[in-house]
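Here's what a typical entry looks like (Spore coat protein):
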Amino acid sequence: MNQFIQNMVGMGGMTDQVIANDFLMSAKSGIRNYTIAITEAATPELRTVLREQLQAAIQTHENITSYMISKGYYHPHNLREQLQVDLTASQTATNLAQQ
């Protein structure tokens, strides 16, 4: 996102992180929904198609996770670092709500 626009809306560099986090949460939700749909599918053909879509959703989740780790937005193996990222993000959201 353009730095000027980020500064105008008060988000600075957080915009990419927020978008990536929302995308990751959506991917997780999609994975859950595909697994439920597979158990409810009426035909083997439909289950096959849903499994293919599930595999694509899992790959998307992995891609987003890798991106977030490389940018320092996500620390799945270091709870202290992740806690600091989450606290910073929540403080930014609180500050935006107060403006």
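Residues 11 and 92 are 8 Å apart (CA to CA).

More examples are in the samples folder.
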